[in-house]
Amino acid sequence: xxxxxxxxxxxxxxALLGMSACSGGGGTKAGDAPKAKEANANREPxxxxxxxxxxxxxxxxxxxxxxxxxxxxxxxxTPKFIPFGTGTSVNEVIASGLxxxxxxxxxxxxxxxxxFNLQSELDEYMKKYNYDTSKLETTTYDFVKQFGKxxxxxxxxFTTAEVLMYNKDLFDKFGVGYPKEGMTWDxxxxxxxxxxxxxxxxxxxxFLTSIxxxxxxxxxxxxxxxxxxxxxxxxxxxFKQMSENFTRFYSMPGxxxxxxxxxxxxxxxxxxxxxxxxxxxxxxxxxxPPEMNLDxxxxxxxxxxxxxxxxxxxxxxxxxxxxKNKDVAFEVLAYLTSDEMxxxxxxxxxxxxxxxxxKLLESFGQDIPQLKGxxxxxxxxxxxxxxxxxxxxxxxxxxxxxxxFRELAQGVSDANTAFRxxxxxxxxxxxxxxxx
Length: 436
Description:
Blueprint: H1 3-15, H2 33-41, E1 46-51, H3 59-73, E2 77-82, H4 90-96, E3 102-106, H5 110-113, H6 123-128, H7 138-147, E4 155-158, E5 162-167, H8 168-174, H9 185-195, E6 197-199, E7 202-209, H10 211-216, H11 237-251, H12 265-270, E8 275-281, H13 283-286, E9 294-297, E10 315-319, H14 326-336, H15 339-348, H16 358-362, H17 394-409, H18 415-435
Parallel strand pairs: 1-2, 1-3, 7-8
Antiparallel strand pairs: 3-10, 4-10, 5-8, 5-9, 6-7
Helix pairs in contact: 1-3, 11-17, 17-18
Pfam family, one: SBP_bac_1
InterPro entries: Bact_solute-bd_prot1, SBP
Protein name: Extracellular solute-binding protein
């Protein structure tokens, strides 16, 4: 693998954490491209500073991902990037007075980000540049409008979703048929029992997942916190029942995880290779050892939500409220959602397209050997679950929901006890946070 692909691959792993959407900032027709390029070359030079909090993205990675393409499309723009690290937390960047034009952030950081008052309302720019929001993936833009109470403060750049990955070598070894598209969770449970066994003195597991991520993008769109009351919502009967659907995979005979393995399900899948099926974002397959014989199918569905996949987990960008170049920043942001850039993100394996163009999906991971000949369409839910509401207290509630799941999975408590304790602690944590 050459240096460029190594950079792209590491960025894809770090990021985890895709029809032109604009007729102004990158949606020009092929015949108009020379004129547009000439016009851009004659514009007043500007610097645009990008910032991506809470990730390890380096300046080199940023330039390889989008900086060079931005410079090529807009010759008058010089992209700059502030790496996140010591001395460059959000508070420190704001206090320093450093120029800030575009902020890139995951959906998990959206609620906290609003506290810094850095986002700009984009609707006026969308109208000015004839930005077509109907091209964006529906549930993602629905979330944008819901979070902004009807206004648009962010645009999505790329996305990911949960997928069911499986080790074909283990299935072949044990003579069991591969997972299929269209399964229910009950179907997967039966399949998991067949793959849970001891072979050569080594315990093998049928199915496990990263429960915190599974709950975060759950297929029933159940929130951790009630957005109206800011009280924990994970103690509901529906949430407990959904959690029990997953804990049964951990408690079937032979599948009980040793305490030192809990939370390390990914290692069981790609390092120990004793786990037959693993549900997580597609970054696991992107970063898997090339010799692993992996493939994927969509997540099984709940009976009450047939065919519904996980929620999308997008990465967004916002034009900073402190930017002195908001028009140019929006044009660049719009360009990042164009077919050209969406295809680049997809080919690099960075993220799935956030625009409604099936052809772009086919290009995902074209430059990554691990994905050659794989069922790439499984990475993108045919029917994503609506994205659940987000609050600034989600992290606190998610921690307690995951703790309750762990107690239930390890047989320490029953569901009612575990989730009651978790809810009570989350209430205390939220109250303490609100007083700060």
